[in-house]
């Protein structure tokens, strides 16, 4: 690059941030997009950037209007940053940004409805002048870590546009192009978002959203009380399903409800078809339009419909079923604490396929010891709380052995140790969140890093004030990054809101 008469300190610094997250096809929504954009804006402001932030631009024209307006502000010696967080894809090795109105988007309309990245690059570089003048520095950051999903009318499962998202791009002089995951990859470790997420903080004071009725935080059987809640799950409408274990029932709390709705069970342990005995986990299965319940002490997995006075259907018998998860294709995964294994089920008339453990209660990489909670990512990797081994294991699809992704260094309270891990959650960047039961804390482990970050902690001691936990188990993260915890021995569900300063 030719030398410039203008010093770096004399150059203006301008940034355009476009955060697209509120896609009209609900399964394509990425609410973290707005948060990433706002956090980046705050960071850039602190180092002297003049920032323009735009969110949820619905058409290609709306995006290009903002690009042109921004480009008209630029001068030859400016330092320019363009950051896009949202969906993108490639067609015939050409990259496109996807506006939020994606209702008509398919392989035939991407060319007309998407925004060509080369067009954006050319529009910004038009301000550099002739070849004898040095170009200003232009930094492009494309934060498109998720595969874009199209509706497929012929199948019940979504279809990815292409196995690859963005195609590699050659940067002209004076331009730096950064992909937050490898070009031509489906989903890699998003380094840029990881650093943003690493700066995130949660409010230290939790908010009780279920149980822990005012002036009485102990156990109870009324519909606004809980007794040793364990597993948590979201419904498609973001209601929370609670396994109210010692009340022998499953409850549902709609957003902002203060009283739960009984889904199954009658507060009294029993074995008949309308009763439960210490259920540990439950999910709502969209394809089956019913609840799947781990009826732990009855040693059975039940299907429970939403119809009034409906009776349960036994799906699996003679199983020490503790944890349950479902992938995006509707396959159900269940952990068995006696056989020390996890099985995947597509048809409950069959025994299922073993996907983790099953060779006895040991601590080698192909074994588990009392597996409890589960979660499954988009690539069908299964994460297992290997509770008595004090570690969390990841089993890739088809693998014969697992990988330690948290703990595995003996029982303890350091940031590389766990003490009976329970609830698990994965965010969109493959960061793993773990309820560390006997350390009474919530940990986050970044993808590939075995030293965890303490997210919620009370110095490893059980307490009952809003900032503390007592034996956490079930764990959820919503689209905005808020954390929900089954605070088991405080008989409540706590929500810890993410901070947006």
From TrEMBL:
Alphabetical GO biological process terms: proteolysis
Annotated signal sequence range: none
InterPro entries in alphabetical order: 6-blade_b-propeller_TolB-like, Caspase-like_dom_sf, NHL_repeat, Pept_C14_caspase, Pept_C14_p20, TRIM-NHL_E3_ligases
Domain Caspase family p20: 11-88
Protein keywords: Repeat
Protein name: Caspase family p20 domain-containing protein
Gene Ontology molecular function: any one: zinc ion binding
CDD domains associated with the record: NHL
Lineage: Eukaryota, Metazoa, Spiralia, Gnathifera, Rotifera
Domain of life the protein comes from: Eukaryota
């Amino acid at each position: 690059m030719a030398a410039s008469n203008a010093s770096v300190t004399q150059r203006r610094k301008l940034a355009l941030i476009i955060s697209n997250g509120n896609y009209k096809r609900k399964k394509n929504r990425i609410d973290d997009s707005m948060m990433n954009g706002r956090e980046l804006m705050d960071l850039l402001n602190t180092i002297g950037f003049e920032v323009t932030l735009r969110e949820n631009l619905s058409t290609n024209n709306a995006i290009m209007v903002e690009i042109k307006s921004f480009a008209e502000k630029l001068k030859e010696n400016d330092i320019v940053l363009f950051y896009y967080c949202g969906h993108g894809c490639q067609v015939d090795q050409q990259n496109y940004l996807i506006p939020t109105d994606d209702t008509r988007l398919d392989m035939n309309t991407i060319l007309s409805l998407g925004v060509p990245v080369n067009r954006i690059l050319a529009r910004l570089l038009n301000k550099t002048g002739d070849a004898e003048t040095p170009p200003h520095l232009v930094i492009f950051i494309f934060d498109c870590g998720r595969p874009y999903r199209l509706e497929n009318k012929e199948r019940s499962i979504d279809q990815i546009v292409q196995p690859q998202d963005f195609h590699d791009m050659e940067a002209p002089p004076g331009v730096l192009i950064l992909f937050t995951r490898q070009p031509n990859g489906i989903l890699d470790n998003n380094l840029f978002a990881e650093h943003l997420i690493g700066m995130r903080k949660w409010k230290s004071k939790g908010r009780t959203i279920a149980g822990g009725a005012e002036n009485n935080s102990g156990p109870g059987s009324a519909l606004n009380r809980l007794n040793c809640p364990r597993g948590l799950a979201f419904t498609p409408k973001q209601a929370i399903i609670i396994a109210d274990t010692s009340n022998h029932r499953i409850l549902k709390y709609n957003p902002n409800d203060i009283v739960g709705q009984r889904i199954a069970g009658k507060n009294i342990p029993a074995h008949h078809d309308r009763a439960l005995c210490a259920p540990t986990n439950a999910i709502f299965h969209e394809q089956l339009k019913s609840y799947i319940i781990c009826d732990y002490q009855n040693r059975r997995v039940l299907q429970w419909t939403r119809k009034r006075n409906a009776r349960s259907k036994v799906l699996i018998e003679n199983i020490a079923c503790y944890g349950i998860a479902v992938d995006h294709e509707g396959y159900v995964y269940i952990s068995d604490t006696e056989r020390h294994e996890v099985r995947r089920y597509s048809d409950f008339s069959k025994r299922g396929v073993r996907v983790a453990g099953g060779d006895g209660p040991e601590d080698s990489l192909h074994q588990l010891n009392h597996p409890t909670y589960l979660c499954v990512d988009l690539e069908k990797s299964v994460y297992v709380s290997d509770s008595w081994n004090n570690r969390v294991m990841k089993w890739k699809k088809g693998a014969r052995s697992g990988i330690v992704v948290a703990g595995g260094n003996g029982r303890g309270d350091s940031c590389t140790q766990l003490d009976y891990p329970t609830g698990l959650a994965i965010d969109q960047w493959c960061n793993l969140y773990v309820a560390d039961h006997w350390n009474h804390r919530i940990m986050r482990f970044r993808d590939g890093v075995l030293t965890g970050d303490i997210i919620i902690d009370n110095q490893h001691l059980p307490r009952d004030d809003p900032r503390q936990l007592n034996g956490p188990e079930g764990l959820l993260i919503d689209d905005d990054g808020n954390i929900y915890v089954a605070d088991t021995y405080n008989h409540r569900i706590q929500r810890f809101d993410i901070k947006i300063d």
